[in-house]
Amino acid sequence: MSHDDSTHGGSGRRPGSFGTRLIHAGEERIGGAVAPPVFQSTVFAVDEAGGYEDLKYIRYSNLPNHRMLAAKLADLEGAEAALVTGSGMAAISAALLTVLGAGDHLLAGDCLYGGTQVLITRKLPAFGIEHTLIDPGDPASWAAVLKPSTRAIYVETITNPLMRVGDLEAVGRFAAEHGLVALIDNTFATPAGFRPVEHGFHLSLHSATKYLNGHSDLVAGAVIGGRERVTAVDGTLRLLGGSLDPHACVLLHRGLKTLELRFERQCATALELARFLAGHPAVARVAYPGLEDHPDHLRAGRLLDCFGGMLAFEPAASSKRTGVEAADRLLRRLRVAVHAPSLGGVETLVVSPARSSHRGMTPEQRAAAGISDELVRVSVGIEVAEDLIADFDQALGG
User: Which amino acids are annotated catalytic?
Assistant: First the structure.
């Protein structure tokens, strides 16, 4: 492979534990620099010995900043190659439009991030691509909706916003048995919690805006998997124009190095907060796979290295207010947690999915997916757990 290949990957994984590889994988020490410099250039001089594919151009996502970041990401998930993109949706759309074409059929999880749901159900049909929504936790039902034109299956490691964990091992097996491409959005679990390649997935997708960066200050995405498939997605991305700015590459590169430290704290605090909310009289229900009563608790414990930093809950209705009114009141009264969309940052963020991430779905679609208007999604940050719990306690009181 060319040294400039944007899908530079992890076939020669660096030795050491995950936390050590976060720091050292993919580093090139250009000019001896310990921290990578920003190569803020749209194009590089042509090497006369090289061919067209060796051209270094920002839209091709093959500048040094792209290359180092891609190598690190591939290493962390134990994959051959990776590609960084301008957003999570750029990664998802480029991957789906590479795998699928007119006349093809997709099996997709029935509760996905709202943007993905809209892409699959409203936009892809315009390209002649059909879909069927499936329950990722019910493998026995998938064969019945399989078609001769089915080409791929798409799920999320931990679903947004109800934190379901499907039978991911079965997805990999099903794809292998039927010659399908298995794609997974691994944003919520991160490479610190789940490595899709180990379970038979061909392409792992991320909104790197979230946990991989971790500081709520950039938009980025990633595609990780086998070299041939990632290279094909790269070709699509070049035409769609979803490349990542070199300065954002450097910020993401820096953010990745603290992923393990951040994610461990977020997972531990999320479990504490979920247990607190589950026992609070003003809370009707809590969705967090770390709770014993979560329908996917045992499966999540088997598949994931930790239960994640995301949870959702519904404030209870009362004689004073409806559930929606209670949720609105909570959002207004929180002092530590910030009412803002997105997730995965060092600060705790809360949001109403029905009015943010899943607003693009119809009320009927949200109801079918179990996303109520009073549902509150929480992205747990790295604040001290006691302070965060006290904040939710006071916001729910009265």
Answer: 59, 113, 185, 210
pLDDT at 205: 98
Would the pLDDT of 293 be above 90? yes
Among 100, 180, 170, residue whose Cα is nearest residue 136: 170
Quick one: DSSP state of residue 13?
Answer: P
User: Could you give the residue range(s) of every CATH 3.90.1150.10 domain in the chain?
Assistant: 260-396
**Range 260-396 classified under CATH 3.90.1150.10:** yes
Quick: pLDDT tens for 349-362: 999 998 887 787 77
Cβ atoms of 93 and 115 within 8 Å: the answer is: no
Assigned CATH class of 18-256 = alpha beta
Report pTM.
Answer: 0.93
Distances (CA, A) of 251 to 90, 119, 212, 258, 379: 18, 28, 10, 12, 21
Please spell the DSSP secondary structure of 88-112, one letter per residue: HHHHHHHHHHHH--TT-EEEEESS-
Q: Which amino acid is present at 292?
A: E
- The CATH 3.40.640.10 domain(s) of the chain lie at 18-256
Nearest to 167 by CA among 142, 141, 139: 139
What average pLDDT does range 300-304 have in this prediction?
Answer: 98
Of 30-39, 124-133, 259-268, the least confident? 30-39
